[in-house]
Amino acid sequence: MKNKDYKASAQLFIEAVGGKLNIQSYMHCVTRLRINVINKDIVDIAKVKTSKLTKGINWSSNQFQIILGTGVVEAVYAEVQQILDDPKKEITENKSKDKSLEDFKTQAKNNKERLRNAGGVLGVIQNAMKGLGEIFLPIIPAIVAAGMAMGFAALFKNLGVLKPGSHFTDIVDIVTKTAFDFLIVLVCWSTVKKFGGNPVLGIIVGLMFVSPILPNKGEIASYEAWLKFQNNGGTEEQWKQAFNKLPELVEPWKIGFIKITGYQGSVLPGLFIGIIIAYTEKNLKKIVPSAVNIIITPFLTIVISFTIGLMILGPILLIIESGVLIAVKTLLNIPYGFGTALVAGSLQAIVITGCHQILQGLEMQLVVDGRTNTGAMNGSIFNAIWTVSIISQGGAALAVALKEKNKDDKRLHISSFISTLFGITEPAIFGSNLPKIKPFLYGLAGGAIGGFFVGIFNIRCSGMGVTVLPGLLLYADSVKNLLLIIVGNLIALGSAFILTFFLYKQKNKAKITKANV
Q1: Between 105 and 359, where is the model more confident?
Q2: Which CATH superfamily is domain 3-118 in?
Q3: Where are the transmembrane segments (predicted)?
Q4: H or E element in which residue 259 lies
């Protein structure tokens, strides 16, 4: 396809939807150019279909979706952006009945108010999930790729192919871990872009929250687990037997009564901080004199958003994490599989908040306790709980993929499912399940069912850090445990798949029409 085809189609699409005046906002996902229009009545659908790039169209409220396919949509979006950002570019405005600029502005305001009030609380939730999907769609490919690489790396480490401490292993870790360690940067960038701010400011502030100067949450959890192990009479030799080396002394910073940590691997804080950045920048532009706006506004935006994230959002998150840790510990003590069911059914919801990192210390403590005790405590049950909670989201994503009619979207959901086989749920959660709400809930239910099985049969292993397919190696020392964890995975996957496939119904199917090409 030639660049002139992309440019011509971009020009045609802009004119067909009514020109610049009728475009409230625009974005793209993996396959579709999504244009939020002010007045639906003046959109010329027939004109859109005349483009040979158009595979179909779809309406979702006031969002006009032009289905173009992977690869093509990015190229067309770039051309649309270039045209709309060029003040010298003349575009035929497809106005309706003498509508003025003020008329369009008034209608745009009314549209926003109508969407805000549509469907009450349920409508608000659905709009929020839709927005969440739009934020995560641009970063899903990077997470899927990193997740696949991380899964293979974990497998090769367990097989002894990748040796700890070698430079080659360090290079592999850079390739596999960067996207997840810096996840808040990606989320900040996409959120700020979604809410109309400067995405570069999102990147800068996001990088500040994962600065190596700040104490790493995962390292804090490891060190706290080591201290608790020592207090319970554990020795250095026993710890090294489980984890090869002792953790470094890392503690949260304290400014008065406020505890401060980094945000490595966090998702939800990135959303809140991104919104703060966008709205802070917008409001500052209204009050800062234009002569110094280019200097003062970015500076104050960075300072204000970083301070709020560090001094207010951070401590709140630490309090929530402490509550999550206490709750999980309490639930694990409930017998007959009910405790493990509740934990497995809630873990992926905890992942969304970013509070799951606090559980790393708990898992380390359970692993080392299992290695230094005998009988029923020989090993940790937590890895099995993690595993079934992950694969259940994969089962839901697979069901979504099979029900999806659009081939490009289907491929995205299948990729999300494959990533869960290697222990990575973010693509499945944010790319497939959570934006649709019910598949995510069915995934949680599948995790709970799998967790019940894990608790009933007390499935344990003596390691951590890898799950699902790579994690099977942790159970290879016992044929019984290996078979049980495989069955547990199948139960969790199958339960989530069945619930999603038979109970989840896609919306707007009838509104999708194919272009006559």
Answers
A1: 359
A2: Glucose permease domain IIB (3.30.1360.60)
A3: 135-156, 168-189, 196-214, 260-279, 291-318, 338-359, 380-402, 414-433, 440-459, 479-504
A4: strand 258-260
